[in-house]
Amino acid sequence: MEVSADKLRFLSCGDSAVTVEFAKEMSEQTNRRIRFLAAKIESEGIKGVSECVPTFCSMTVYFDPFVISRKKLEKRLAEIISSYEESTESKKRVFLIPVCYDGEYAPDMDDVCMLTGLDKKQVVDIHTGTDYLIYMLGFLPGFPYLGGMDKRLEAPRLETPRTTIPAGAVGIGGKQTGIYPLASPGGWRLIGRTPVKVYDPDRETPILYKAGDYIRFYPITGQEFENIAADSDHTVEVREEI
Amino acid sequence: MPKMTVISPGALSTIQDTGRFGYMSTGFSPNGAMDIYSMKIANILVGNALNDGVVEMTLLGMSVRFDCTSVIALTGADMQPEINGEAVEMYTAHEVHDGDVLVLKAAQTGLRTYLAVAHGFDITAVMGSMSTNLKCSLGGFMGRKLCAGDEIPLRQSISLELIGKRRAKCENNYTLTVTARVMLGPQDDLFTDEGIKTFLSSEYTVSDKSDRMGVRLDGDMIENKNGVDIISDGIATGSVQIPASGTPIIMMADRQTTGGYAKIATVISADLHKIAQARPGTKVRFKAVDEKTALELKKKQEQKLKALQYRMLYAYKEN
Q1: Chain B residues in contact with A68 (beta carbon < 8 A)
Q2: What pLDDT digit, counting tens, does each position of B104-121 carry?
Q3: Domain C-terminal end among B147, B172, B197
Q4: A81, A126: one domain
Q5: Which of A107, A140, A183, B99 has its CA 20 to 30 A from that of B185?
């Protein structure tokens, strides 16, 4: 099915940026179209466009108005989007992220069990049983806004946010789950921690994944956590799936 | 290695260039100088590339000692610079020598001052930029603000003779009333006509809670139609965000890349430097302009910098 470009809205963000709004509601379908546009721009390039920031329902495009006018840019973006076809769906990249759900790594596990009425094994099984789509990155570098968390795991944020959450902490905040890529204040309930460096400024790609990729968590022991944390050559397994 | 040693760091001094670009999609704010216009003039005055790294000082300047012959220039807010106790002019290239001490005081008007050295600071770019990202402890000098005792390496020693007596018109008579021109959008349609009217006719005051992330304004609340929560989208530099409190925040260099509050308007590129220099207590009024006007003003500003760059080449030849 070809998606028509006529539902697009171009929202002005001043003289050097424009936000392309694809829809008013977030959905995987909308996200696929945004991902398609981002990939097209990345592979083909649009002269004068410096960067694109994909989000839930839109994409913000930064441009040099003296190289490409807003009008021409909007026309080009609409053209690209109208060339999207559902059948061109590509493989999905799934990042396998090890998480220790035990003891000190999971300070809010007991609370989450209480709030959800599940036992720890159930929480871990449910949390590791889904591929989470990364809708967008924001808030912090590499902080993934993930879709698809099982409703049974929903738990409200802490009433008083923590002043420091360590890098790699995995938490639940309302309907969402995610990873803190670097130490930061935050109000999510922490149910585990990954030893993987989601953010590494010295790596060629400082952030492991990008919007449109998937994350799958798998449980590890405290010992495995230590081993991976100590191994500077550890690489995260990435699976390409259809 | 020639260097500059920090004697006292001032209130907030960081290494910044024009910003770290290409990583916003993964959540990195661009950082970079708040007042890129003044920062570029500083670079021109010492013969550097426009985007070379400089020191950005805030409100209270720093004191530094040089251990080599170099050429420096200061632009932006007048912090009453002195070299070895003698007053020197802003917007002018000065030669410094081994043992010379540069002292800066509090900004007379405005808020931010830029120090450029000829050939630049020898700071390794991280992810393509020398800018300091304070939140991630990334880039700049050890990823943090400058502290007493820091030795900032200079790429190369150079004399004024090789650069020429460069001088530019002082553009730092910052007033306590500022008109920021804006283009409405991206979410102006979420506000009532009355709300838009309030936004464009009220006088707002810069709050002392402002920082490099955002310039917070106190004043009349801006009325919305059905709330200001949106599904998070991208935030451009200069976005005027209206959170639930109803008063504007102008998002600046260290802003988050995405956010869930409606943005009523965006300050045009040519006026961002005014906001960067607006100290707490400054009165801000917003004026809506169309895209054509915004681009004309942006062009004019860029041409001014080009003309200055060109003139400086002659300063060198005539020297």
Answers
A1: none
A2: 999 999 999 999 999 999
A3: B172
A4: no
A5: A140
